């Protein structure tokens, strides 16, 4: 068996096990981590001049951000959720722009925005330090 194929299969099984046991909060964290990973892959591909790889990674990042948008509670859209939805739309547009312009600065911008959102999300789920 091809060792790389075996590794990918092992990673796929590990990811499936993680998602089946994860809380909704953890699933959102995993999506955000995946989005950041794909943006990093796109940046690396751009540096290597791997245009196809860049496009694939950006496409996956856009899909992940779309998944985050779909997870918003549209029946109870507060002003904060509306702003977050607009931020996700902005990130999607900027990623498309980065893909068309081959601009690593735009990828950095979206990475920074998603990192900030993730840090806030992580803090929401962090165990309270107050007894």
Topology:
Blueprint lengths: L2 H19 L2 H24 L3 H20 L8 H23 L2 H22 L6
Helix pairs in contact: 2-3, 2-5, 3-4, 4-5
Concise overview:
The protein has 131 residues and is an all-alpha fold. It has helices at 3-21, 24-47, 51-70, 79-101, 104-125. The model has no long low-confidence stretch (mean pLDDT 87).
CATH architecture: Up-down Bundle
CATH topology: Four Helix Bundle (Hemerythrin (Met), subunit A)
Q: What Rg do the Cα atoms give?
A: 16 Å
Major sheet size, sense and barrel closure: none
Please give the alpha-carbon distance between the first and last residues: 53 Å
CATH homologous superfamily label: Flagellar protein FliS
Number of strands: 0
Tell me the overall shape: globular
Just give the CATH class.
Answer: Mainly Alpha
Mean pLDDT: 87
Overall structural domain count: 1
Question: What structural category arises from helix and sheet content?
Answer: mainly alpha
Order of helices and strands: HHHHH
